[in-house]
């Protein structure tokens, strides 16, 4: 099939001391990174990693020019693989898309066939992208926490960074699965939003004590879903019940973890590392749960759909932590 020229938002190498230059361009299919599958992009998600890359922070992108966007949904328009059928509706996230190869911020994407996953039955292109890498991360956390023994009858689950993409979906997802969810957010205006997603209680982060987190605090949480790290995670670990489970996948609060072994050896606490760049068999299994038992009920409240022209400003807002929920770009 002949692919017509198309619109893409591409980052170019920064000059010394500046951020990458991002601009909309008209490209051809041969301008994209190689791959066996061409996808007509319907929606692409905004993630904190995308915002960091657009600002040139963290050395996330090392080779330019690059089309960002680490998750996308769309329809296959050309395939050189027997494993991926033309016309199939698909989702792609992780595997280096938007970082090591061109990503979703374009009307077309070209990727290796083994990165492509068919949409699970019952999920449309928009909702699948509102979920995207964030929803998969929340679902993967719930999957491994339940695999490790978590159940609603054991008590409350704390979700930190609750207004972010993963946090918002986790509040919705865990509450739909019968858990009593307490959402933690430093944004006073987010209380009604989080209660609307199913949070039974909304907490503000307590000021950090001068002496640091207690090795052990009053046991409250059966589970913790943490996107912050640092002092916030350390304090949450100290307040887990015996045999409590924490799932960690973020470092917005710092990469250091100022805690001790006491929660682990005196209460049997479990700390699970959640890496969303997981192999395809696990992705299919977890996405199957996300489309059924784990399925959030309030994606419309979480979703913010924008036109491509609003992408640069929306990435900047995310970097300033002035956004909440999930923002997706409509390329359809």
Describe this structure in words.
By secondary structure, the protein is an alpha/beta fold. It has 2 domains: 6-119 and 298-330, Alpha-Beta Complex (Quinone Oxidoreductase, Chain A, domain 1), CATH 3.90.180.10; 134-273, Rossmann fold (3-Layer(aba) Sandwich), CATH 3.40.50. Helix content is 26%, strand content 25%. The chain contains 9 helices and 16 strands. The chain has helices at 48-55, 125-147, 165-176, 191-196, 230-238, 262-266, 280-290, 299-302, 311-319, and strands at 6-12, 21-27, 37-45, 66-67, 71-79, 89-93, 108-111, 117-118, 157-159, 181-184, 201-203, 221-226, 240-248, 270-273, 303-306, 326-330. Strands 3, 5, 6, 7, 8, 15 and 16 form a 7-stranded mixed beta sheet that branches. A hairpin with an 8-residue loop joins strand 1 and strand 2 (21-27). Helix 1 (48-55) packs across helix 9, helix 2 (125-147) packs across helix 3 and helix 2 crosses helix 7. The longest helix is centred in the middle third of the chain and has 23 residues, at 125-147. The mean pLDDT is 95.
Give the SSE map.
Elements: E1 6-12, E2 21-27, E3 37-45, H1 48-55, E4 66-67, E5 71-79, E6 89-93, E7 108-111, E8 117-118, H2 125-147, E9 157-159, H3 165-176, E10 181-184, H4 191-196, E11 201-203, E12 221-226, H5 230-238, E13 240-248, H6 262-266, E14 270-273, H7 280-290, H8 299-302, E15 303-306, H9 311-319, E16 326-330
Parallel strand pairs: 9-10, 9-12, 10-11, 12-13, 13-14, 15-16
Antiparallel strand pairs: 1-2, 1-4, 3-5, 3-7, 3-16, 5-6, 6-8
Domain Enoyl reductase (ER): 22-329
GO molecular function: acryloyl-CoA reductase (NADPH) activity
Protein name: Zinc-binding dehydrogenase
